[in-house]
Design brief:
Ribbon_hlx_hlx, 4 helices, elongated, DUF1778 domain-containing protein, toxin-antitoxin system, single chain
C-alpha cells in the first residue's frame, strides 16, 4: 500500500497571458503566492458550489404554504389511517420476533 499522507497533488491549468497577468496581480495584491492564491480561490469557489447544491431554495409563496400546512395539516383520509394502523400492527409484530 502506498503512503500518500503528506503528499500533495498537482493541479495544472492552462490560461491565456491576460488571465495569467490578472491572477498574478491579484495574488500579489493579497500577499499570496500565485499557487496560494489559486488554491484559496478554487477552494472558496468549491465550498460555495457545495453550499448552493445542498441548499433548498423555494419561493416565499411556497415557504408560506409549507409552513401553513405544518401548522394546520389536512386531515388524514380514513383509508390512509387504516393502512398506517395495519402497518404498525405488522411491523410491531415483526420487531417483537426479532428481539426474542
Amino acid at each position: 500500500m502506498m503512503n500518500t499522507q503528506g503528499k500533495d497533488t498537482r493541479l495544472v491549468a492552462r490560461v491565456d497571458e491576460e488571465t495569467q497577468r490578472l491572477i498574478a496581480h491579484a495574488a500579489e495584491l493579497t500577499g499570496r503566492s500565485l499557487s496560494q492564491f489559486l488554491i484559496y480561490a478554487a477552494k472558496k469557489e468549491a465550498q460555495e458550489a457545495e453550499r448552493q447544491a445542498l441548499q433548498i431554495q423555494v419561493s416565499r409563496q411556497s415557504a408560506d404554504r409549507m409552513l401553513e400546512l405544518l401548522d394546520n395539516p389536512e386531515p388524514i383520509c380514513p383509508k390512509l389511517r387504516e393502512a398506517a394502523l395495519n402497518h404498525r400492527k405488522l411491523a410491531g409484530g415483526f420487531k417483537n420476533r426479532r428481539n426474542q
